[in-house]
Amino acid sequence: MLRANEVSEVTESYDAAINAVDDNRPFLTEDIHTQLMAALNAARAEHIDVMVHPVRTSTPDWHKTGQENLAALEGHLNRVADLIRARLRVLAIYPD
What we know:
By secondary structure, this protein is mostly helical. Helix content is 78%, strand content 0%. It has one domain. It is built from three helices and no strands. The radius of gyration is 17 Å and the shape is elongated. The model has no long low-confidence stretch (mean pLDDT 85).
């Protein structure tokens, strides 16, 4: 079972990530923003599951759900990285 301070650390990190996306919204393409929000929603799903069902943290179903949430989060973050790389290629200035 997670301790209160561990849940608090996750909450603080999640809130910081939301603020970072919000603060940088004017500089993000729509695709990047969409994928970042999807990643944050996947992280939120896991965070809520831990907060609502802390006793279930040792059950196989709970671990399976956690693995699915992690896979969703990783997938969205990989798409964000791909989108950023593509955007940087478009913005790159090559010397003559």
